Fold:
Amino acid sequence: MLGRLNHVAMVVSDLDAAIHTYEHTLGAIVSQPQALPEHGVTVVFVDLPNTRIELLYPLGDGSPVSKFLEKHTDGGLHHLCIEVDDIEAASLDLRNKGARVLGDGKPKIGAHGNPVLFLHPKDFHGCLIELEQI
Ligand code: CO
Structure:
């Protein structure tokens, strides 16, 4: 079912400071910030040779990452995103095995224009997993 690691996502408490750190301290290639109101976040991607790091910052009221920042005030690791060929088939298979898909269970369009869904961290040993159809 699983393909490549697409990205590792970090929630950051100061987006400008995080961009500066990745761009200048670490010398990475960093994308322009992209507002995703449907997901309640602004995202920035850091390109690495084998994957990407997604920096997430709250956007608007009730952002899902605001709650994360209340608990982890310095920010921290938020989720792993793994590629799948067929997200509907993956969702059905996982739900048949008792895993919980967050939200209404239907894929949403993610930051790259591809369908994504999130799996409940309690079913995956404390790790929030995003599946993205590539
Ligand atoms: Co992600």
The chain has a mean pLDDT of 95. The longest helix spans residues 15-25.
